[in-house]
């Protein structure tokens, strides 16, 4: 079985081919246009997807050495994400399916982040996934393929969103997550005690207070600019410390509650070095096996959509041509997650 995967939920246009022999290609066209605005501009994202999607798909087919005529199904991100961006990918995928008379697989982007762990690895079920991206922060108990129970999620900002918004306050370029990560390696994580919210709740998160706290902390300094110049790395390290401590504490709660022996990280923030170090330590302490996708499969990519589509196609989980995109996870309440 040969699956073409397409991802267009936010600001990456991506395509990949996954076959019985594994991943054959993984192409990403990132949209630089948003950088000047300090965040993703939805309308510009849709237009950029529209412009690059066919070329990206062609490149994935060429690099995978699989002609379109040998593709058995097209997997595409159905949501969550930006409505306009999702529509471009979904309509394009439907068009390909209609023209080739092959089935469509509508993939949940959050599921795909979790199954990115299966590209190079075979995590054992049941496991708990800490799925941390720019739009979501979730603890998910995965008991079998596509059998998910949501243990808890963020009540406001996602972890990645917190990194990005705090980065903006600190004057860092978008997306700030990787920049804060890099700077944290040279700073003191105990320089300032930023709040770790909702520690009295087992599985839920809240990160919006953290950015306010960073803002007030800077405003309290006599000379904010000079203070930032001198201590940017320390502030980055302290922010990373506050975010990763909460994530790891709640992951520990989830391990204790579910009794799993396997844990997985997923989503863009799982690229974070401090989080990786702390989860490695947690795995050692709890005797759990830890799975983290390769960096290229942590942030948005189509390889994760292609492998999830492959696993869904094996289970006959196809979508019909009336399938609509969904912007948020509420539309998924009919499913388990
Ligand atoms: O999963 P992803 O690529 O897109 C969404 O589905 O949202 O995640 C993007 C998020 C951004 O907020 C970005 O700042 C964050 O992941 N991110 C990081 C790192 N690399 C990406 N955050 C912290 N440390 C990193 N190394
Ligand atoms: Zn994502």
Describe this structure in words.
The protein has 337 residues and is α/β, with parallel strands linked by helices. The chain has 2 domains: 3-114 and 297-314, ATPase, nucleotide binding domain (Nucleotidyltransferase, domain 5); 123-292, 2-Layer Sandwich (Nucleotidyltransferase, domain 5). The protein has helices at residues 42-64, 83-100, 109-115, 159-169, 177-184, 208-219, 224-258, 273-286, 303-314; strands spanning 2-7, 12-19, 22-30, 73-79, 104-108, 127-132, 137-144, 147-153, 262-266, 289-291. The longest helix has 35 residues, at 224-258. The two termini are 27 Å apart. The structure holds 5'-O-[(R)-(carboxyoxy)(hydroxy)phosphoryl]adenosine (KG4) and zinc ion (ZN). Zinc ion binds next to α3.
Element layout with pairings:
Layout: E1 2-7, E2 12-19, E3 22-30, H1 42-64, E4 73-79, H2 83-100, E5 104-108, H3 109-115, E6 127-132, E7 137-144, E8 147-153, H4 159-169, H5 177-184, H6 208-219, H7 224-258, E9 262-266, H8 273-286, E10 289-291, H9 303-314
Parallel strand pairs: 1-4, 4-5, 6-9, 9-10
Antiparallel strand pairs: 1-2, 2-3, 6-7, 7-8
Bound molecules: 5'-O-[(R)-(carboxyoxy)(hydroxy)phosphoryl]adenosine and zinc ion.
């Amino acid at each position: 079985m040969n699956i073409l995967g397409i991802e267009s939920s936010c600001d990456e246009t991506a395509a990949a081919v996954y076959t019985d022999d594994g991943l054959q290609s993984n192409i990403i066209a990132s949209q630089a246009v948003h950088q000047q605005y300090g965040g993703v501009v939805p309308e510009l994202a849709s237009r950029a997807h529209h412009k690059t999607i066919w070329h990206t798909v062609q490149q994935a087919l060429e690099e995978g050495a699989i002609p379109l005529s040998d593709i058995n199904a097209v997997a595409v991100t159905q949501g969550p994400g930006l409505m306009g961006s999702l529509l471009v990918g979904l309509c394009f995928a439907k068009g390909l399916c209609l023209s080739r008379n092959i089935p469509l697989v509508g993939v949940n982007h959050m599921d795909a982040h979790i199954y990115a762990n299966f590209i190079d690895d075979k995590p054992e079920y049941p496991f708990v996934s800490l799925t941390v991206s720019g739009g979501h922060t979730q603890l998910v108990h995965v008991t079998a393929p596509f059998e998910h129970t949501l243990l808890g999620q963020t009540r406001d900002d996602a972890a990645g969103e917190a990194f990005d918004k705090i980065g903006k306050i600190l004057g860092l370029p978008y997306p700030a997550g990787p920049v804060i990560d890099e700077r944290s390696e040279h700073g003191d994580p105990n320089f300032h005690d930023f709040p770790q919210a909702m520690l009295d709740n087992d599985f839920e998160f809240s990160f919006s207070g953290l950015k306010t706290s960073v803002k007030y902390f800077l405003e309290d300094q006599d000379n904010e600019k000079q203070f930032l110049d001198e201590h940017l790395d320390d502030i980055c390290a302290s922010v990373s410390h506050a975010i990763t401590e909460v994530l790891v504490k709640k992951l520990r709660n989830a391990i204790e509650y579910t009794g799993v022996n396997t844990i997985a990280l997923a989503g863009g923030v799982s690229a974070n070095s401090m989080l990786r170090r702390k989860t490695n330590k947690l795995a050692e302490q709890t005797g759990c096996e830890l799975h983290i996708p390769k960096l290229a499969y942590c942030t948005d990519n189509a390889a994760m959509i292609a492998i999830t589509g492959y696993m869904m196609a094996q289970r006959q989980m196809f979508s019909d041509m009336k399938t609509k995109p969904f912007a948020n996870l509420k539309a998924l309440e009919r499913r388990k997650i």
